[in-house]
């Protein structure tokens, strides 16, 4: 029975990461609420800027049925919603809406306990005490949606799920897809298997089928709605992109999206809003990675966001890994014909990735522009996502990608690998470093046969753990992102203030502490760590070599 449950949990983890790596790839019906998604109330409240964060309003619960509130607002405005003063709007919200958080019932994880086994493998006493505190944070991040949200779903923007879950933290009160992968891995290390299993079952609930059909159903969503054919040297290859066809401002960033589209024609504004939705679907909201200027070059500003015009390396690496996983599970269940079908999908995907995304000259995979039909040469940690996903055919590609990373400039920072080398002011750019991207890089490097790659993976783990630990010492908090230039300095930029919590940060830290706990140190000279930190790439490379002999 334990083996069966382990297999099911492995399958469902694939659901969380390999099919749902993104914030908004779920399959429930599109947002259709006249209060939460569009309409006069949303527009009036958000443009009045009653709250510092537009997400505040769309997280508020309705106290009455939507039609009652819509009628009350119509009577209040006498058909002219622009006439409502801010003070009157505040009174209206107080009467008809609850503050965010009312959708949750009290809950503490019953499977939490004091002393999970992985703690014993952490040699550094300071890091072990810190890991204990991270383990305690699961209790503060646990949430359970109230049964009233099931009985009256029309009064909530939160979609009901039957099992409690762990949220990222701060403004992020919901169940998120790719966050949940790293959260669940952390929960498993904390031996909180019931909570982890419940989160997985929530994802199955959102698709409303059993595990393996749910995996396939969401895979088909990507193939039917997010695929694109690219011709290279006379051969057509099918790959995937982010492409949300919603030409409206995002409800949670309504006023920002309206202001960004000022001066544009109606068609241009709708096109921009579709691209912003697509950027949010990627999880990289937002980044210079998605900027495409009038010439098709990777330049511009947030107003030049053209996410759907790019084929991303990471999305296709994830789908490749998912196709292989589906083949494995069908073969395990004795369905050889379906297994062979997904074997062929893996082969086709790998061939497409190597034909379209692999850049032989640079020795790495790069995002591909559907405007210029060329690669975008900019550095992102996701350029190495196929290494992590094990989606490449020639062993030499892994070694070439290692060399690319070593010479990219991405290793030249003391506190992690930046999301890009472009300082755009957006949060998915320099100088920010994000936990999932660090983990994808480190796990990819540790999977290569090269000792040099594995030691670099450890060096990056040491940098990241020390960054997280120093921030905790200074602020007694874990952050969603960090600044690569400051010891323990949280990241910034983008649409909102840096958030505390933080689910995936905790999960990645616990995984690295478990994997390298016998070697990681909190001290300034552990394994030559601090003495090797340099803004010089050559010194960083020397550091990697030096650690082999320490």
Structural summary, described in words:
The chain has helices at 2-19, 40-47, 55-58, 66-77, 86-96, 125-141, 147-151, 177-189, 193-207, 211-225, 254-260, 266-282, 313-332, 336-357, 385-389, 395-407, 435-447, 451-475, 503-516, 529-532, 537-546; strands at 61-62, 97-98, 104-105, 142-145, 165-166, 227-232, 235-240, 310-311, 358-359, 364-365, 368-369, 432-433, 482-483. The protein is mainly alpha-helical. The protein has a domain at 20-199. α1 (2-19) packs antiparallel against α13. The protein is globular, with a radius of gyration of 24 Å. The model is unreliable at 1-29 and 524-550 (pLDDT under 50).
Outline: globular
Number of strands: 13
The chain-level mean pLDDT equals 90
What's the quaternary structure here?
single chain
End-to-end CA span: 45 Å
Radius of gyration: 24 Å
Individual helix count:
21
Spatial strand sequence of the major β-sheet: 3-4-5
- Class from helix and strand fractions: mainly alpha
As a percent range, the share of helical residues equals 40-55%
How is the biggest beta sheet arranged?
A: 3 strands, antiparallel
Strand content: 5-15%
Low-confidence stretches: 1-29, 524-550
What is the gist of this entry?
With 550 residues, the chain is mainly α. The protein has a domain at 20-199.
List keywords for this structure.
single chain, 550 residues, mainly alpha, 3-stranded antiparallel beta sheet, two-stranded antiparallel ribbon, 21 helices, 13 strands, globular, disordered N terminus, disordered C terminus
């Amino acid at each position: 029975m334990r083996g069966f449950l382990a297999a099911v949990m492995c399958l469902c983890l694939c659901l969380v990461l390999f099919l749902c790596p993104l914030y908004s790839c779920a399959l429930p019906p599109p947002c259709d609420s006249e209060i939460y998604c569009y309409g006069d109330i949303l527009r009036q409240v958000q443009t009045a800027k009653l709250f510092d964060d537009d997400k505040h309003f769309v997280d508020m619960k309705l106290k009455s049925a939507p039609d009652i509130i819509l009628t009350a607002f119509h009577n209040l405005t006498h058909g002219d919603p622009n006439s409502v003063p801010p003070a009157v709007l505040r009174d209206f919200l107080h009467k008809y809406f609850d503050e965010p958080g009312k959708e949750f019932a009290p809950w503490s994880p019953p499977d939490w306990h004091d002393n999970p086994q992985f703690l014993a493998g952490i040699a550094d006493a300071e890091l072990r005490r810190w890991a204990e505190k991270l383990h305690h944070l699961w209790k503060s991040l646990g949430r359970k949606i109230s049964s009233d949200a099931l009985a009256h779903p029309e009064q909530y923007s939160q979609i009901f799920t039957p099992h409690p879950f762990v949220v990222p933290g701060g403004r992020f009160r919901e169940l998120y897809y790719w966050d949940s992968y790293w959260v669940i891995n952390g929960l498993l290390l904390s031996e909180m298997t019931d909570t982890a299993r419940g989160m997985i079952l929530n994802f199955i609930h959102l698709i409303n089928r059993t595990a393996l059909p749910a995996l396939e159903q969401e895979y088909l969503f990507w193939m039917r709605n997010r695929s694109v054919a690219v011709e290279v040297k006379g051969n057509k290859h099918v790959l995937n992109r982010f492409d949300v066809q919603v030409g409206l401002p995002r409800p949670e960033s309504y006023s920002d999206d309206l202001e960004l589209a000022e001066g544009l024609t109606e068609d241009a504004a709708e096109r921009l809003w579709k691209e912003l939705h697509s950027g949010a679907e990627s999880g990289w909201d937002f980044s210079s990675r998605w900027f495409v200027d009038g010439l098709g070059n990777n330049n511009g500003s947030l107003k030049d966001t053209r996410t759907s015009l790019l084929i991303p390396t990471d999305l296709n690496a994830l789908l490749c890994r998912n196709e292989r996983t589906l083949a494995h599970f069908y073969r395990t269940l004795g369905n050889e014909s379906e297994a062979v079908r997904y074997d062929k999908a893996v082969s086709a995907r790998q061939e497409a990735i190597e034909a379209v995304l692999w850049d032989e000259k640079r020795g790495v995979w790069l995002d591909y522009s559907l405007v210029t039909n060329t690669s975008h040469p900019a550095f992102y940690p996701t350029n190495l996502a196929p290494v992590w996903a094990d989606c490449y055919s020639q062993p030499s590609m892994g070694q070439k990608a290692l060399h690319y990373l070593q010479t990219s400039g991405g290793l030249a920072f003391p506190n992690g690998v930046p999301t890009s080398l472009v300082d755009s002011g957006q949060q998915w750019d320099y100088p920010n470093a994000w936990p999932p991207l660090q983990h994808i890089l480190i796990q990819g490097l540790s999977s290569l046969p090269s000792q040099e790659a594995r030691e670099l993976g450890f060096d990056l783990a040491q940098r990241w753990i020390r960054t997280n630990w120093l921030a905790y010492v200074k602020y007694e908090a874990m952050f969603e992102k960090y600044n690569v230039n400051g010891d323990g300095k949280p990241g910034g930029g983008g649409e909102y203030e840096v958030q505390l919590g933080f689910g995936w940060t905790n999960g990645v830290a616990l995984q690295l502490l478990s994997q390298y706990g016998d070697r990681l140190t909190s001290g300034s000279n552990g394994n030559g760590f601090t003495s090797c930190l340099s803004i010089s790439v050559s010194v960083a490379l020397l550091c990697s070599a030096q650690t082999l002999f320490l």
